[in-house]
Structure formats: structure tokens, C-alpha cells
Write a structure and sequence with these properties.
Layout lengths: L1 E3 L2 H8 L13 E3 L13 E8 L4 E9 L2 E2 L3 E3 L8 E2 L22 H4 L8 H10 L32 H21 L5 H11 L4 H12 L5 H22 L6 E5 L2 E8 H14 L4 E7 L4 H5 L9 E6 L3 H9 L8 E3 L7 H4 L11 E3 L6 H8 L10 E3 L7 H8 L8 E3 L6 H10 L9 E3 L7 H8 L8 E3 L7 H7 L3 E2 L3
Length: 487
């Protein structure tokens, strides 16, 4: 496999003015990228870097049979000399068959995802480096002078059919791993789609169409692509996304979200995660007896958005929010799961990456807010749903007494906070510099309270939802364009 060493890391090892031919004797590559997992069964990791000012591509190390220790890939020090392989850019094809196609100025970025090499690629690289460095792994350096014509092997004999099938499956798995390891990027998805289209697999077209629909398009183009997407889904959807008993949401060609009852999910999810970059899971009927099984699921650390429905006692909620498996979670939704005031005390310093917290329908009251404001990472929230939580103006005051400098959306719907609650919002406006959406549906507020609110110094506020408070649409239209009123 090939992986890139950043300019900063390379210069830390080689200095600011490295030269071709120098031997760095590198013995590690610090990365937890899932795409490198095939190396666990043996193999070689070819490390390259891109050098300014002309984007020269240098081979800087070849790690033989590296082993992953949880943070980095370790091997014996290699004797590979720094080798300029810029001339091979057009010849290296990778297992994907796409090769190096980066535009000027984007070579380094294009190689951010580790790539699987073909046997021909390996022969090219070994030939350029003079034999591949310490080939037997004894640390003495086995580099041999490059023979004339090295790096340009003759056409290999075709492998038997079984080997072709094996290589094809391995290539497909590697490409899927690249998609899963970088779910926010479209580049691995396009590479995978290209690989499928060369085999006349309609899933390749579907992925490219879905990616295009996620971006800006003319009305006519969007209509045409949407129709083609619907046609492909009608014809192949049950084959591609047949998850009996589960719901699935597809985005940019792959399953983004799955949902269902806890028992069915625990049984089916492992297979889905092997082939789809799922980032959101919605679970029904979670309870104190199934929470441990969920937290032990091997796929849970890959989830970024988790939605739970059911019932959790304080101990189970504590297990949930303190689990290392949720360290990378960005959204936690525990609507109506009987979360108590004491349960919120378990948040403490956990869930550092959560930016959206949904606590709707949990009757923890003002005491729960007192626990919540002690949460170390509360100031990092961008969205907070505190609807139907039995809050009063006291709870509003406690919550907004904290500087919520990143909060964009806040909901107090179905809480009797009254005009006193609005007074607390006005008084603590300085703590809400980025608040753009405020939801106050059915909160026992009056026209006078709303009049005071619209005058508050909330510079980013764009929408105030005050429906179901006896405030007419006519009043809202006259008072402030940001108001949404009525039933």
C-alpha cells in the first residue's frame, strides 16, 4: 500500500533541506486510517511525500510487514534511500485502476487516503528505489543497483480465474474501506463508483448521480438526475439496500442512516457496516437490559449521530454517556427515555465532540438543568432541544447563565417558562451571540413578553417561533418579521 507523509512530519525527520539519496531509516507511520488494515496480514507500506516547489513525488521509506499498535504502524528501520519517483506518476495505477490524476497544486491532497498498489506498481517502485530496501527485514539493507529498464516490466501472464476473483474482491473491499474511513469526502465515493462502472455495475452510476444531486444544479438538470435516481432505485434498490426490518436513508450513493428495534439492529448492523459508511443509527426499545449489548457492538465507535427511544435508568444513562465507544459522537438524541435530573450528572467531562443534544420529553425539571450546566462541554453545543422537560423561568435562568458562545438553535417548547422566562433570555442575551433560532411553542408567554424579546440584543437571531401562545399572526407580522405565530 502507499500512504503519504505530510511535509511537516517529513521535515521533522529529514530536516528542512533533505536530499535525494539520503537514508532516513524510518521505522513507523503514525496513522489510524482504517484503509491500512489489510497490512495487518503482512505486506509493505510505501511512504511518499510531495516536495515543493514543483510537486516532486519522493519515495522516502518502505516499511516491511508493519504492525499496528493502536496508534501507529511499526516495522524494522528500513534502508530505502529517498528516491524521486515523479516520472512514475503516469505509470502507477493503484488497485482502483484510477492512478494519479491530481490537478496541479492538488497532488498532496489527492494522496491523503492510503491506496492499495498492484503488483506492477510494486515492481515499478522497487525498481526505482534499487530493489526495495531491506527486503528480508533484517535491518542490514539489501538495496541493489537498479537495472536498466527497471520499473518498466513486461506484460505479466494472466492469473487464473480464481486469482482474478480474489483480487477483484480485495480491491472492492479496500475501496469500501476508503469510503468508510472518510465519510465526509466525495473523492473515495467517486473512485469506487468509477471502479463499478468499468464493470457495468449500475451502482456506480447511482453513486455518481446521488453525489451530483447533493450539490448545486440547474432546475432542469436536477429534475433529470432525480428521475434517473428514482429509476435506478426502483430497479435495483431492493438488491442494494435490502435490510429487512430496518429503515435506511441513502445519501451520496451509500447508506448514511439505519434504524429499527434494538434486537434487529444488533443482529443486522454488523453486516451493513461492512459495506456502507453508516454514520447515524436510530434505535427503538432500548432499555436497561440491552444497553450493555449496544455498548459492546463493534460498529458503535463508527457512529456519529445516535438516536435512542425507550427507557433508561440513571445507571444505564451513565454507562451510555461514559462509554469510550461514543468518544467521537457529534449528536445524541434521547427523546422520552425517562432521563432524570440525577442521570444528567453523569455527563461530567464526557462526550467532548457532541454538538447537538436532544433531551426532549424527559421530565428532569429545573434540577436537571442545574446538573446540565455543570457539564464541561455544554459551551460547545450548537443545538439544544429542551422541550417538554418541566422547566420554569428558574431553569431558563440557570441554563442561560452559562456562556453558550456556539449555540445556534435552542428550543423550550412545551415548558411553562412564561414571560419571566423571556426576561431571562433578554437578560442573558450576551451569552447567546450566535443564536439564530429560538423555539417557544406553547410556553405560556404573552404579547408583552414577546415585545421585550424582539428588542433583545441577539445579533444573530433570525427566527422566533411563538405558536400556540394565543399570539396572532397579524400581531407577529406587525411586530417583527422574525416571529412565527398562530396555532
Amino acid at each position: 500500500m502507499m500512504a503519504i507523509v505530510s511535509k511537516a512530519v517529513f521535515e521533522k525527520v529529514a530536516g528542512k533541506s533533505p536530499s535525494v539519496g539520503a537514508r532516513l531509516r524510518m521505522d513507523r507511520y503514525v496513522s489510524g486510517n482504517k484503509a491500512l488494515e489489510p497490512l495487518s496480514n503482512g505486506g509493505k507500506l510505501y511512504l511518499v511525500t510531495v516536495r515543493p516547489p514543483d510537486e516532486a513525488l519522493w519515495l522516502v521509506a518502505v516499511l516491511e510487514k508493519p504492525k499496528f499498535d493502536g496508534e501507529q504502524w511499526l516495522a524494522k528501520p528500513c534502508d530505502t534511500p529517498i528516491t524521486d519517483i515523479s516520472d512514475l506518476r503516469g505509470e502507477i495505477k493503484f488497485a482502483s485502476g484510477v492512478g494519479i490524476t491530481a490537478k496541479k497544486g492538488a497532488l498532496g491532497m489527492s494522496l491523503q487516503t492510503p491506496r492499495a498498489l498492484t503488483d506492477e506498481d510494486v515492481e515499478l517502485l522497487d525498481g526505482a528505489a534499487g530493489g526495495g530496501g531491506d527486503a528480508d527485514g533484517d535491518g542490514d539493507g539489501d538495496a541493489k543497483p537498479a537495472k536498466k529498464g527497471a520499473g518498466k516490466p513486461g506484460k505479466p501472464l494472466p492469473p487464473p480465474p480464481a486469482a482474478i476473483i480474489s483480487q477483484s474482491l480485495e480491491r472492492k473491499n479496500l475501496l469500501l474501506q476508503a469510503v468508510a474511513s472518510d465519510p465526509d469526502s466525495d473523492d473515495p465515493r467517486r473512485v469506487y463508483a468509477d471502479q463499478l462502472t468499468t464493470k457495468n455495475d449500475p451502482r456506480g452510476e447511482f453513486i455518481l448521480v446521488d453525489i451530483a444531486l447533493a450539490g448545486p444544479l440547474s432546475i432542469r438538470k436536477r429534475e433529470a438526475l432525480a428521475a434517473r435516481r428514482a429509476e435506478l432505485m426502483a430497479k435495483h434498490g431492493k438488491t442494494w439496500f435490502n435490510f429487512a426490518g430496518l429503515t435506511a436513508r441513502v445519501s451520496r450513493g451509500f447508506v448514511e442512516s439505519i434504524g429499527g428495534k434494538i434486537g434487529k439492529l444488533l443482529k443486522t448492523a454488523p453486516e451493513i457496516f461492512e459495506s456502507e459508511p453508516v454514520s447515524e443509527v436510530s434505535i427503538r426499545e432500548i432499555d436497561d437490559e440491552t444497553i450493555d449489548k449496544l455498548l459492546a457492538a463493534p460498529w458503535l465507535p463508527h457512529v456519529r449521530r445516535l438516536v435512542l427511544r425507550g427507557k433508561l435508568d440513571d445507571e444505564s444513562f451513565g454507562k451510555l454517556v461514559t462509554s469510550p465507544s461514543l468518544a467521537k459522537l457529534t449528536t445524541l438524541n434521547v427523546t422520552g427515555t425517562k432521563v432524570s435530573a440525577d442521570a444528567l450528572g453523569y455527563l461530567d467531562g464526557n462526550l467532548a465532540n457532541v454538538r447537538t443534544l436532544v433531551l426532549t420529553g424527559n421530565k428532569f425539571g429545573d434540577d436537571g438543568i442545574e446538573k446540565l450546566v455543570a457539564w464541561k462541554h455544554l459551551p460547545g453545543l450548537e443545538t439544544l432541544y429542551a422541550s417538554g422537560c418541566d422547566l420554569s423561568s428558574k431553569g431558563v435562568a440557570a441554563l442561560l447563565g452559562v456562556a453558550l458562545g456556539k449555540l445556534d438553535k435552542l428550543t423550550f417548547t412545551n415548558n411553562d417558562i412564561g414571560d419571566k422566562g423571556l426576561t431571562q433570555i433578554v437578560a442573558n442575551a450576551k451569552n447567546l451571540p450566535l443564536l439564530s433560532y429560538l423555539e417557544l411553542v406553547n410556553t405560556d408567554i404573552s404579547k408583552n413578553g414577546v415585545k421585550a424579546l424582539v428588542k433583545a440584543k441577539l445579533p444573530a437571531l433570525r427566527r422566533i417561533d411563538v405558536r400556540q401562545n394565543g399570539i396572532s399572526e397579524d400581531f407577529a407580522a406587525e411586530e417583527d418579521a422574525r416571529l412565527r405565530a398562530g396555532k
